[in-house]
Structures are given as structure tokens and as C-alpha cells.
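Figure-free illustration: sequence to structure, shown twice.
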Amino acid sequence: MKAVKLKTTVEIPIEGIPLPTRFVSFEGVDKEHFALLIGDCHTLPVLTRIHSECLTGDVFGSRRCDCGAQLKEALSHMSERGGGVLIYLRQEGRGIGLYSKFDAYVLQTQGIDTFTANEMLGYADDSREFESAGAMLKALDIRHIDLITNNPAKVLALQGCNITINRTLPSGVFLTVENERYLRSKINKKQHTINLNKNR
């Protein structure tokens, strides 16, 4: 990976967040990844969420995943805490792209789990990478964080980038009839720390 540097920072107010919010772009990343800085990002450890783009969930509120709910929850926690950073990675559909994600959804309606569906389409079961997030945090001069995640792969990737994770804070459990099979596949195949019994 090329050296990652800050490119542009612009303040854009966000509805529902009473703190200053700044969007940051970067040089040296392979996609249009960006950071959203909320309030105070200097008090350590910085509350942090690494979020992979999910257009269907983040924008349209899809009930087939928990992505949009996790995003809203993280922003709410950051607002309540007085600051935080969201690293938004443009790697839709576990890295396979939006159109291929639609194809994977068709297979999932036949009972195939999300990871196997990606493999049936000729992709890795999860093509995402999180090293870019580590490089972006370093470019922001953020090296000590509290990380909101259920995904152990994110923890390992950031630790490999010499980001110190003070605490790992689990995301909420956002169970719907439509996403239960999806959540179980994340638990069984990728060891996500999701307790589905909490919402029973």
C-alpha cells in the first residue's frame, strides 16, 4: 500500500448529531474510502468504528442485514461520548461490488449463506481488507482507540497496523426475521461475537 496521507477535510453538518462533523478524504488509498470525524477526536482512546459500505442497509434500511443499524448505533455512541471517528470503507458486498451483491442475494433466497454465495459467484467468501483503515487512522494521528465491532478480523488487522485497541465494544444485536440466517452465518463461519439469545 502507498503511503496514506490526508487530502481534504470539510465540515458538513449531519442531521441528528449536535457535534461538529468533518469528512476527510485521503491520498494513497485504492478506493474512495473516507473518515467521518465527530466532535473531539483528540481525547484518547478515540471511539472508532470501521464500517464497510452497504448501500442497501446504510441508505435504504434493508432488513436482510444489520449494517445500517450498526452504523446508526455507532454514530449515536460517538455523539453521546462527545467524539469519535468512523472509517467508511468503500467495499460493498464484502468487497464484490453492488451488482454482484445482488446476485449473491438471489442465491441467499435459495438458502445459501452469504459467504458460500460469494464463492459460488467466483469470489473469495469475504474480499474485504481492513489494513486501509489502519493506515487512515495513522494519517489522522489516531493510534489508540476503543473499537466498536463484533468482527475479530478487524481487531487483528488493526493490531497488525500497530493500532492500539484499548477496548473492544460489541455492536448491538439487530435481529430480524429476514436477517437471522445471515447473522448466524457470521457467527458460525467468521466467529463474530453476536449473542442472538439477547433479543429472544
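We now fold a second protein in the same way, so the two outputs can be compared directly.
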Amino acid sequence: MDVRVTSDPQAFERTVFPFLQRDPVLHTIIMSNVHERADGTVRAEDEPSYFVSVHDPDVVGAAMRTPGRGVYVGALREDLAEPIADAYADVLPELKGVAGDRPAALRFARRWCELRGGKATETRGTRLHKLIELSPLTADGSARLMQAEDVDVVATWGDGFAAEIADAIATDHREWAERRLDDRTLWIWEANGEPVSMAAYHMPLYGVCRVGPVYTPPDHRHHGYAGALTTHVTANILAAGNQACLYTDLANPTSNKIYHQAGYRPVADFIDVDFS
């Protein structure tokens, strides 16, 4: 078994995407993050990313660590977690955590703590869903593409979303909003002439678009806006000939119920593990 580490996203994309594209929904997170860095659409970062591939002799597993975040192992086989942890220990003195399929993430965490000490704590569970058959949801109001005059409110909502999911990564959400405006990948639900919810999606990669973030500010919740907007965005993704997927927080039964009603079905569950 050969474990390779690189900070070159283009080389990593060439190496591992033939393996990952066999299931572009299951591997959506790692593929979109690598691709955005390979084609230069991510703003300049202060430190390198580290990408790991496992070969036996062809690629059988992959993981990534982007600046400021933990390692993401995704749907990695459990037996590959320890050699990948060893590879990251060779290049990183410390690490915030790991995320991915529970057996692989926990095994990585155990190995990392053996190597570096500290404690691993499971902090969050997420569920990946794939759209099977769309059932449109309705609410008062209508959907529209984000416009230039929405940049400020979208940036503010981006800050609110990051705070709610406890994302400690410093993000310029105004810049993020401007990129969504340029890409035409963010929609707003408007009720009584007022923006009340937003839903963005990632550009298609191997025929898959990942919906998110979806955010409704607290004052406008419990009216069905997010569900109606998500199904509108999903319909546009399908109309363009792509598949749609999204992630939900397992601690939020409301969103899981709504997306099930919309026609999304579970694909896999993942966990976040923090190191201290």
C-alpha cells in the first residue's frame, strides 16, 4: 500500500478524481473543494492544503485538509484511516479534528491521539441526501435570483449561518456573496416584498450540484420559506440535467423532515470529531 501526500490540487485532482467520480454524490465535499482550488476559484490562502491518496496499486482512498479546518476523510474505508493519520502526522504538528464516515473518522481520531496526545470528542452528525423524485413545497411569496442590491443582506445571513453551525473559520461573507452573485448560484425567497430566506448551490461537477447553504433568519422561520426555496433551486438543477444533493444536521429533525417531504433520501451519515 502506497500513501502519497501533495499540496498540489491539480495533481491530486488528476490522480484521485477517476476514483471519486464513480460516485460524485457520495464524494461531493472532497471533489468540490479540490476542484475549486485546482481551477483557482478559491481566494488565496495563507497556508497550503494537504491532500492524501492511498494506492493499492490504483487509488483506493483519499482525504484532504484545507487551511484552518480538520482532515476530511469522507466515505473512506475504515482500514485506511490509520495510514492516512500517519501521513498527516508527518506534515502537520497539530490538527483541529477530523470529519467523515463514523468508523473511519473515529479510527483516524484514535490514531491521531496516539501520535499527538490530547482528546477526541464527537461534536456533530450530518446526513448526506440525494434527490430521488422532487415534490415541490409551497409557501407565501416567490423565488428570485440574487441581485446586486442583495449583497449586504446575503453577507449578513452568511455570518448568521456560520455562527449557527459554529464555523470558526474566518470568512469574508461579503466576498462570498459577490461570488454567488457573479456565478448566479444563489436564490432568495421574497415575501411581501421582503427577502426572507436564501439558498445557494455549488456549480455542477460530474453532473452533481450540492445545495447549500440554506438559511432563513430567525424572525422569518416557521413559514416554509426554506423548503419552498430549496425545491425551487432543486428544480432548476434538475432542469439543467444535473443531480441534486444536500447535507442536513442530524440534530435538526425539522430540516430532515422537510427535505424528506421534498423528495430527498439519505445516502450516508458523517460525524465531526474535534481534538483538544
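Summary for the second example: The first helix runs from residue 9 to 20.
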